[in-house]
Design goal:
The chain is built from ten helices and five strands. The protein has 237 residues and is an alpha/beta fold. The protein is globular.
Amino acid sequence: MFFCIILLALLNCTSDNDMIYNPSNHPDSTQDSLQGEGLSFLALGDSYTIGERVTQIERWPVQLVNAINHADNGYAFAQPKIIARTGWTTQELKAGIAAENPVKNYDFVSLLIGVNNQYRGQSVETYQPEFEELLNMAIEFAGGDKEHVIVLSIPDYGYTPFGANKKEEITKAIYDYNEVNRKVSEELGVKYFDITAISRTDEADMVASDGLHPSGKQYKAWVELILKDDYLNSLFQ
């Protein structure tokens, strides 16, 4: 048993109790450079932004950019800069941002954070000021223009195989966290997209191979929700 514990530690293997904490399966847990020409996009978050267990092209920020660029709407984005890692809480995202030190003139910025605060048992009262601080930082990265910032709600992992045994408890907690990030977004005048309803599904192909994170198909549904709103067209056309 002792040998197995040491081996797991060395290999950073996944167990049912630490799935959210594992480093991303992608070696580039942050993307350091913009690729190509076009509008700039900074995506801030955790596993849901870096795309745990999906390919790079399936990450929702990448799918969003590619969908926009293929739509020929009169504007185009460079590939997004992503500052996110699986397991990050609000405080860890703040530290990750400090380490990256991104510029403050992005055309578009997104923020999705909080599931690991909830998973680790942190209170929504602690989450609120930390989320508000990060959202104000996101606004700064958008050159101070709050209209160029969006917030995505936290998915409900109670509907995944991983969370099924505590579905009601998780759903209630995610609701409470989303009430906080929605309220803060509204108070700061930032566009809010509620993608949580999409995550509440029994469709097996909407969940990645780990039984926890969204699949590329689910991320595509998030992107379709964002584009259906016509919000981006109003900003950049």
